[in-house]
Amino acid sequence: MAKPAAAADVAPETVGQAVIPLVNSLQDIITRLDGDAAAGLELPQVAAIGGQSSGKSSVLEALVGRDFLPRGPDICTRRPLVLQLVRHSAPEEWGEFLHLPGRRFHDFEQIKREIQLETDKEAGDNKGVSEKQIRLKIFSPNVLDITLVDLPGITRVPVGDQPSDIESRIRTMIMQYIKHPSCIILAVTPANADLANSDALQLARLADPDGSRTIGVITKLDIMDRGTDARSFLLGNVIPLKLGYVGVVNRSQEDINFNRSVKDALAFEEKFFSTLPAYHGLAHCCGVPQLAKKLNMILLKHIAYMLPGLKTRINAQLVAVAKEHAAYGDTVESTAGQGVKLLNILRKYCEAFSSMVEGKNRVSTDKLSGGARIHYIFQSIYVKSLEEIDPCKSITDEDIRTTIQNSGGPKGAMFLPEVPFEILVRKQIGRLLDPSLQCAQFIYDELIKISHGCLTSELQKFPILKKRMSEVVSNFLRDGLRPAETMITHIIEMEMDYINTSHPSFVGGNKVVELARHEVLPPKTSAPLSGRKDGTIVGSEIQLTAERGQKSRAVFARDATRSATSEQAS
Question: What φ, ψ does residue 82 adopt, rounded to 5°?
Fold first, then answer.
């Protein structure tokens, strides 16, 4: 009987037992860090990708030699499962979850149930998918040190609670892992499908165009059509990959239903390859044990290749963190000292806020900020928005005529009444409200930016205080925005309620007639009037000129009255 993925005569003390567990420990540490701290620290690992029902889960179980993954007719892997295989010399086997530290699972059925419970907890129990990882370590004497990530299988038709764009989401999730040069891609494709149209190989080609870090795994070789084989695929004659291909035989659904063990499946696989002539001479690329050895060696080489750069990045972050730690200063233990520290922080914050508003802080040459930005909002953005309002644009002659007629009731009007004028003017004054409220919102947003910019470096040491100060200041500014908006609304309403026609800038009544007269009559000339050759004018001529002027004004006033009356009549 074949050994389960066993390391086929590999000595217990391998390089992998020293290096790969170290990388696994680093991965556990990075998992606990926030996104910023973990940025740029992508560690070497193997990501298993494939379409739904490609046999990906069976391959992982064969590598472990135990049945421990949830199974079903639909999508089974609904959260990324980071699987760390740790080889040890003791005969016992167990699993440990990162979210349950210190607890060992010796029953692999319990491991399966825990994976299912954690999946349902995060992604729901109706086929939902989540990006949050499950991290599992399996300790066994029958494995080689390998770190794999089992990613959800690519599916096209949503089921259960899956969104309509489930295929796009899963592809995006997969790309987040395999796009990094530190990731070895394990592209799983069933032998009874067209290799040229393999979802796994298509995604791998996007992330790894030259195929330098992709291993092809061809599953289900035992169910290919009679008379066909995968020899040309395994030799890389169809789609070449620099790391090559490995062919495996999976447990069928019938095997799973009848609880056929992984060990029995591996024995059947060994017999299959030894008896089928098409695969003779391909022992190096056939079978799960060969896949385990290949993954182990490739991962070791990849770690050795990535390690210098990884070490440099970690050291750089250590230096940055050490500087940040030194900037925090000594810890304040006493209550009195803490009170003094708090007052100093608040004082520095207030001073920084005032300086930014008054323009006394460090002046930026890139963009306007602080008080200068507020001035720009008032003088440029707000003024421009008011100037763009054309008070006559939305009022037609028909609107004016209709308003005048409506204000006269059944009697009509001989002269222009004030009521229609006020109705039309109020409507135009109301157009000033929106840009005024928008200006208040812009000022509020700028004050929020100023408040965030004043959070001093000392506050980095007190994240809870920093968060609380930000909340208090934001609430204070927000509470000031509401009465400001109310005041602006009241000002506009006051202007609408009383139209001040006595204002010096208001043009109406006698001023309109005077302006119209200046447009009709020719301007007065300063040249001397000549009634005689010597340039003098006799008294009768002066009187005649005055009478003509009075008649002209009378005619103009009469015509203006008739014009207004005719508009009312129409």
Answer: -85, 110
Tokens describing residue 522: 């020719």
Q: How far apart are CA 465 and CA 167, in angstroms?
A: 43
Alpha-carbon distance of 143 to 88, in angstroms, equals: 8
The 8-class DSSP code of residue 185 comes to E
Going from N- to C-terminal start, the domains of the chain cover: 18-28+42-306, 336-497, 513-522+530-569
Distance from C-alpha of 292 to C-alpha of 269, rounded to nearest angstrom: 14
CA distance 217 to 137: 23
Residue at token pair 């940055």? 320
CB within 8 Å of 10: residues ≥ 6 apart: 144, 293, 296
Q: Which residue has the higher pLDDT, 168 or 415?
A: 168
pLDDT at 6 over 70: no
Contact at 8 Å (CB) between 44 and 183? Answer: yes
Q: How far apart are CA 358 and CA 355, in angstroms?
A: 5
Spatial separation of the C-alpha atoms in residues 290 and 49, rounded to whole Å: 19
- Average pLDDT for residues 44-63, to the nearest whole number? 87
Q: How far apart are CA 174 and CA 27, in angstroms?
A: 18
Beta bridge partners, 96, equal 137
Task: Determine how many CB atoms are found less than 10 A away from the CB of residue 9.
Answer: 8
Q: Tell me, which fold does domain 336-497 have in CATH?
A: Four Helix Bundle (Hemerythrin (Met), subunit A) (1.20.120)
> Residues 358, 362, 363, 367: what is their CA dihedral angle, to the nearest 10 degrees?
-100
What is the gyration radius of the CA atoms in the chain, in angstroms? 42
Share of the chain above pLDDT 90, in %: 19
Residue type, 399: D
Taking a C-beta distance cutoff of 8 angstroms, is the pair 170, 152 a contact?
A: yes
User: pLDDT by residue (tens digit) across 209-225?
Assistant: 999 999 999 998 888 88
**133, 126, 460: which is closest to 320 by C-alpha?**
460
- C-alpha span between 459 and 472 (Å, rounded): 15
* Alpha carbon 54 to chain centroid, angstroms: 32
pTM for this one?
A: 0.59
Q: Which residues contact 453 (CB under 8 A, 6 or more apart)?
A: 352, 356, 369
Strand order in the sheet with 183-190: 94-97, 134-140, 81-87, 146-150, 45-50, 183-190, 214-219, 245-247
Cα gap 65→5, rounded to integer Å: 6
**CATH C-level class of 18-28+42-306:** alpha beta
DSSP state of 103: -
> How buried is residue 260: exposed, middle or buried, by Cβ count under 10 Å (0-12/13-18/19+)?
middle
